[in-house]
What does this fold into?
Amino acid sequence: MTGLGLVTAAGVGAAETWHAVTTAGTPSGVCRPAELAGLSCDFFYGIDGAALDPEAVLGVERTRLMDRFAQLAVVAAREAVADAGLDPAVWDAGRVAVVIGSAHGGLPFYDEQAAALAARGPRRVSPKLGALTSVNGAVSAVCRELGAHGPGLSVATACASGTDAIGTARMLLRAGVCDVAVAGGAESVCARLLIASACRLRALSTRRDDPAAACRPFDADRDGFVIGEGAGLLVLERPEHARARGARVRAHVVGYGATNDAYSPVAPDPEGAGVERALRAALADADVAPADVDHVNAHGTSTVVNDLVESSMLHRVLGERPLVTSTKAMTGHALGASGGIETALTVLALEHQRVPPTVNLDALDPLVPVDVVAKAARPARLECAVKTSLGFGGHNAALVLVGG
It folds into this structure.
């Protein structure tokens, strides 16, 4: 892995996001948009408009050809490619793949266009609805931005999408299909319909009086997650390609595993058997023993069931040694983008030899059997790390990374 780019509710850019998740102590991206008024969860963690104006960065005309999740993907892709020291003007474009995960694509635009149809009739509906809202919108936009002519693949495995996208990119590279892959996730779903449904499901926190403290993974007083928006993209390369151009290698993705619970459309297998199989498959792929894992950036959503299922599974497979964190407490749950964002943060943890804290963790749930880093970043010797993801529909994914 030679480059990374981040656009999150914690910060615009990898350096700013890393600084926020390791030192800020409280989420800064709390938003209360008008479209969520009256819902039991009327807030989300969004990207500050003063920090990122897509029209100023990408241009007005280009911005209008992308939904917001695709705009965020393009901004993250620009940073990742520049960080890798690659120049799209001179690379072999046919050997560059783009693989991006998203759970919902351009869902807010559907809300907007449905309202236009109801209020003003069919002639007010955008002819670009299908193109701008499809899950492949981010892939299409990034391919255009980079002039990438290799495989352009969209991954839609709910909240495991970003992690699966990175695993898929790694498989393409190992198969010799491409030399470079830009991979990760992008999501922006501040949509009244979706959030109203999630409220009915009781998946979201209703801590409306203190939204900055609402997302509290592994805490005894957690009551649900907070939706966030963002994009996290990584540049992966074939080792021979990276060596030939003298690239700086930031980390190695050495293992990947993916499974499905085949249990429920909205709940994880209560025994965590599916995500355990994914993690064990990733460790076997990496030829890494469980005892060698130093750090886990967990899925850690802040829901009662998910946190218990995941932490119990981590203890079964890895024991008590790894330092566990959930950075969603700062970024919100960016759904299909979360795996891309959190994999990038795992790379930065390996580089900086520091585990970001799980902010808002005031009292660890006594049923959580792992060492969760709380409140302040913890320095540690980190050589091997794991990223786990779970998604609606029973999707599970795990990555194993080692430092560069």
